[in-house]
Amino acid sequence: MIMKNITSLYSLGIIFLLASLELVAQPTDTLNVGVLVYDEVELLDFAGPAEVFAAASYYTDLYYFNVYTVAKKSLAKSQGFLDITPNYSIQNAPASDILVLPGGGANRVIEDAPTMDWVKKNHKDALHTLTVCSGVYILNKLGALEGLRVTAHHKSLPHLKTILGEEYVAEDVKFVDNGKVITAAGVSSGIEGALWLVAKIAGYEASHRLARYLEYPYWKMDNGNIAFDLQNTAAILMKDSNVIPHFGLLDVLGHRALSRGDTASARQYFKTNQSLYPGNVLTYHSLALVLGSGKEWVPLTYENFLIHAEKEGIQAGKSMYEKAKKHYPGWKIFSAQDMYMYGKRMVWAERYEEGITALEMGIEAYPKVPRLYLELSSLYEKSGKTKAAMEVLGTAKALFPNHEAISSQVKSLTN
């Protein structure tokens, strides 16, 4: 069946995206994103990266970005008009895996000893610290920029050159990555720095699709400067059997190799990621880019599969899924979130049978995701198939005996 109104269903998808983030099963690798706010903080400096990380969890099955704001006071005011009630104070905030230091009135932070103590500890323990605009001066006060290449708002660059040296200041780039420390230029550049960090953690395609959701078409990996040996860093990590690098590290290396026309290296990076993350749809999406350059048939993956299914109908999507299972056992061509959202959109469109088909495919590919069973049961119920709804819930109850939502839905249907 050809979709009658693709655009309207995508619009519904955006609504559901925001509503469903809390429903996404949080992976074991949860990353705390602590965003410092203070009086005179520049609005987009903190709101841009926060928006990126808050929406990023939808686009990866592997990571959940737990975003929160932190301040010394119970209320901060941005740019003289926006009152911010922080989630935590510097006394009780969780430790940050990713620390975001926005600019604006950065001197207010630098001159406040308790806040600087909090920044120092969190920066030391964090996996990554992202500065935006004059937030770079906060790290400089701690002596954390020694030997690093940095950037900031273009009006700050002359002063940065005088205190750090011209060779350590990058112009005309949106961000500079030194490994742990990422510095972004002014205002909107925090979006770019955060998108790069999402790519380095969760994969290039996750960040690319996230940028599309944000209506931010300007983002590219080469908008920034990678001021450290990314390839050597990956090689060192791969030698340590106790450390598994984030999925995105090898993925961006593969995409960078592809951009140079080096398909052999790209294939090696992507195949290694497949061995490390066999359940992640993005590893197959990246592999498809390499395999698709040859003569062999490769299924559409990730968003490309969704577009095909919504344009040509879910039965066409199912045919591709069945063919992919025969040609590439274990190959993931969609994510659990996408099938869940597809089912939700079909509810709104009252196209229950299509939603049922999509969710059945989702459960077959991802049998350990409770919300797929819940949504399939709901669709069966709405289409008048109460017995089938109960059978799905019975299976789900056996698989997830302590799941409250499943138990609640079983009671609702039996009463």
Total beta strands:
10
Fraction in helix: 40-55%
Q: What's the main sheet like?
A: 8 strands, mixed
Order of helices and strands: HEHEEEEEHHEHHEEHHEHHHHHHHHHHH
Please give the domain count: 3
CATH-defined architecture of the largest domain = 3-Layer(aba) Sandwich
Structural overview:
The longest helix has 15 residues. Helices cover 53% and strands 10% of the residues. With 415 residues, it is of the alpha/beta class. The two termini are 36 Å apart. It folds into three domains: 223 residues, 3-Layer(aba) Sandwich (Rossmann fold); 60 residues, no CATH class; 112 residues, Tetratricopeptide repeat domain (Serine Threonine Protein Phosphatase 5, Tetratricopeptide repeat). α7 packs antiparallel against α8. It is built from 19 helices and ten strands. The strands form two sheets. An eight-stranded mixed beta sheet has the order 5-2-1-6-7-9-8-10, sandwiched between helices.
Summarize, please:
The chain has 415 residues and is α/β, with parallel strands linked by helices. 53% of the residues lie in helices and 10% in strands. It has helices at residues 6-20, 43-56, 106-110, 113-125, 136-141, 157-164, 189-202, 204-213, 230-239, 247-259, 263-276, 281-291, 303-312, 314-327, 336-348, 352-365, 370-382, 386-399, 404-414, and strands at residues 29-36, 63-71, 76-78, 82-84, 88-89, 98-101, 128-132, 175-177, 181-184, 225-226.
